[in-house]
Structures are given as structure tokens and as C-alpha cells.
Amino acid sequence: MNSDGKPVPASEVFQRVRARLRAAVGEDVFSSWFARLELEELVDDVAHLSVPTRFLCSWVQSNYSQKILDAFRIEVPDLSRLHITVRINGQARPRLQQAEPAAAPGEPETPAATPVPASARSPRDAVPRGDALAGGALDPKMTFETFVSGQSNEMALQVAKQVAHAAANNTVTFNPVYVHSSVGLGKSHLLNAIAWAAGGNEPGRSVVYLTADHFMYHFITAVQRQSALAFKEWLRRVDLLLIDDMQFLQGKSATEFGHTLGTLLTGAKQVVVAGDAPPRDLEMLDERVRSRLSGGLVVPINAFDLDLRRAIVTRRAEQASQRFADAHFAPAVLDYVARVVVSHGRDLDGAVNRLLAANQLTKEPITVAMAERTLADLVRQRDARRVRIEDILRIVSRHHKVPRNDLLSSRRSRDVVRPRQIAMYLAKVMTPRSLPEIGRRFGGRDHTTVLHSVRKGEQMIKDDGDLAQEIELLKRMLEE
To answer: How far apart are the C-alpha atoms of 232 and 219, rounded to whole Å?
Structure first.
């Protein structure tokens, strides 16, 4: 209840829950797992939530459901359960507890209740199979209109617009297009924007956006259901294929992507790929795939300069003020945030959201003094270099004179195992990546293997003073 005895609106309850989650898990974890979590409704003792992908749904349910429920119970003590669903084309649907069986050959799939825009089509809409081919929906907030441009990303934006325009007119310009940058600089935003602009509502055009995780899931599930041929044929009928987070593609899925890429290029189909490193550094991919990607148009997005950070913060503050009329961001506050939050765009979004949450929860005006307190952890980190797993692989490989491919391989010789364990340990302590993410980057290893290496590294540091000094040296080299 509010102070006047009226029930608190569900949207306000959820804003408070998000603020509590952000404070509890930190900005990086929040951005990774909770930023796209939405409240559908509060009914009786159940909070109905939704996320855009099955992978995210499974991960949140397995790892954070109790934490989310605890945050809700502070606001709604009678709440006893969470119900998390997967949004398809922007609409929530019940989450399937078990995969649906594939449709029998020649058996039509049940038609959708409403028309599905081509830009948001998933594999479910493209080929008459079962749930194995369900894909992630596009984010309606990620369009060209909401993309903030500056010197560091202007070329990528113009290329993206040209690709979208050409695809909308059934032509091909640069092919393939590969966009790369470190985390949080707008790659996913551009790919979503291309899909929206190229697909529109035209039912005859096949525009598909998939993350690497989704691509792997679809391929592995299709193999398990003995429907891999249908999956491959469907991919090769796609007019515009957009693959995000290419660095997470591993194993047979990467091989299949290489075959699909070759077919799409031969058939003059448009392919746009995004990753966190240039094609030549994606050593988990076959050399032929890297060569094909490098032979297209490779577009980097550089770190944001002060002007672009100020523009992004201003845009986000304007959007926040439209939702909450009593939230006012003074120019001095915007200048302060743009100056001290220098890591990436998601941290800028998170800083504005954090200030907004503090303002709405405490009713304290948003001032520079309030920003200094609320964003203290982000400010402390502003001078720290963001270390990437690719940096760790490069430094450890050079220091121990072990090829990076060997670090990613299954070789078990001592001259490879020890540097690999050191690299995994450094990846855990120096990056925000989770154990499963690190495992994927190290040749598709299981998270338990990474955990073993981390614990082994900790033990080696305790037992071997020389090794401890060596690892400290590696850390300094990575932070320089």
C-alpha cells in the first residue's frame, strides 16, 4: 500500500524489485540476466514474468528464481510463486517444460492466432517443425531511431542502414558484413535494427535474427530429433540471416554455420554477423569461416568518446523523464555520468536506471552528490582496463610459448594443461564472464572443467610462490 492506503501499481513494484536485484547482484550480472526481464502481471500470489529467449528463461529459473522471489516478497509479502515465460514476437507465452515432438512429415503446423511480422520470424514460422526450431524475438526498443550515433560507431550505423535498405529491396550490398567491438557498444542493437528495417510486415521476406546460443541450440536439437536436414534447408532459404555473439559458436555448430554461410553467399543472400573480436581472432571457428568473414566488410565499433557518452546519457535520461514526470536529470548530472562511466553503453544505461530507481524509491532529487554516492562502484572501476578472454589467451600463449589453438584444444600434455588452467583462472578472476561462458570460449568445455581449473589455480598459487609471482606478472601485463 502507498502512504494514502491505495495499492502500489504493479509497474512501480517491479521497478523497486529491479532496483533491489541490481543492488544485490551488481551491474554486470544485472545487465546480463535481468535487463530484459519484464513483469506481465501480478495475479493472486503469483508474479508472471517474461524474457525474450528460452536460454535466458532456463538460466534465470535455474540460478536466480529464489533471489527474484525474495526481492518481490519485500514488496509483496503474500507472493509465493514466480511464473517465467518466453516472449515470442514481443508476446509472452507459457514456457514449455519439455520440448514438443517434431511434426510428422507432411503434417501441417498449427497456424498462429495472429499474423507474424517477417522481421520477427523465428525458425518455428519458417519451417513446419516442432518446438526445436523456436527462436528468440527481436527487441522492439532496438531500432535505428533509438540508436545514438557518434564518431566511434557512425560507420557501423551507415553500413547497417545500407544493408537494411538493400535487403528491404531484395538486393545485396556488402556480403557478409561482420561487426565487432567489445561488450556493450551496440552490436546487438544494430543487428536488431537491421532486422526491423529490412523485414517490415511483408510476409514474403524471410529475415532471421539468432544469437550463437540459439543457433547451437537449434542445430543440436535438430540433430537429436533427426531433423537436421530440414533445419539446414530452412536456413538456406533465409533472405537475411543475422547471427549475434559469434564468439560463442563452437564445435559442429560452427562447422554447420560455415557450410550455411557458403551457401548463402553463393546464392547472393545477405549475412550479417557480430562478435567481440575481429574474424582472425575467432580461433574456435574453422579457418575457412574466418576467411569468408574477413573477405566481406569488417566494421569495428570503437570505444565511446565523451561526446557520445554524453549523448547516450542524455537520450536515456529523456526516456526516463517521459516515463516518470517527477524525475529530473540536471545537465551537471549528465556531464558527471558521461565523464566517470567510461566502460560501455550498458553501464551508461545502468547508471541512468540506478539514479532513476534511487530517485523513485527515496524521492531524493537527482543531483551530482546523489550520483556520486549511487554510482560509487562504477566510478571506482573507471580507470581499470576491461580485460577480455581474447587478451588472456594472447598473453598466456605468448608468455608460455604455447599456441592459442592448443589452449583451446583437448591436448592433455603438461606443457599445455598448466597454461590452460592459468588462463581459465585469470578469465574467472579478471573478467565478468560466468563459468559456462568461459567454458565456451575455451573450446566448448563444461563449466565444471572451468571450476576445476580455477580451484587448481588457487591451490597452485598457495603452494608455489614462484607461480604466484608469475600470475601477478600476467595480471599486470593484462591491465597495462
So the answer is: 8
Range of the domain at 181: 118-300
- CA 351 to chain CA centroid, Å, is 18
- From the number of C-beta atoms within 10 Å of its C-beta (0-12, 13-18, 19+), residue 385 rates as exposed
CATH code of the domain containing 140: 3.40.50.300
- Between 251-266 and 228-235, two packed helices, what is the crossing angle to 10 degrees? 40
Angle formed by the axes of helices 331-340 and 306-323, nearest 10°: 130
| C-alpha to C-alpha distance for 189 and 142, rounded to whole angstroms | 5
Q: Rounded to whole angstroms, what are the CA distances from 294 to 154, 279, 352, 427, 473?
A: 20, 6, 37, 27, 34
Do 216 and 321 lie in one domain? The reply is no
Other CB atoms closer than 10 Å to residue 404's CB: what's the count? 16
Mean pLDDT of all residues in 135-140:
64
Q: How far apart (Å, rounded) are the C-alpha atoms in residues 134 and 85?
A: 14
CA distance 88 to 136: 7
Tell me how far apart the alpha carbons of residues 401 and 306 are, in angstroms, rounded to a whole number: 39
Q: Are 212 and 128 part of one and the same domain?
A: yes
What gap in Å lies between CA 239 and CA 196, rounded to an integer?
A: 14
Average pLDDT, the chain: 77
- Report if residue 99 sits inside a domain: no
**91-93 and 81-88 strand pairing:** antiparallel
Task: Please state, as a whole number, how many other Cβ atoms lie within 10 Å of the Cβ of residue 451.
Answer: 15
Instruction: Report pLDDT for 6.
Output: 61
Q: Taking the model in full, what pTM does it have? A: 0.55
Per-residue CA distances from 437 to 32, 72, 133, 218, 410 (Å): 12, 28, 23, 18, 18
pLDDT tens, position by position, 456-473: 888 888 888 778 878 887
Question: Can you tell me the distance from the alpha carbon of 312 to that of 308, in angstroms, rounded to the nearest whole number?
Answer: 6
Which of 376, 356, 307 has its CA nearest to residue 335? 307
Q: Report whether 51 contacts 84 (CB < 8 A).
A: yes
Q: Are 41 and 6 in contact (CB under 8 A)?
A: no
Residue 415: all three cell numbers together? 606443457
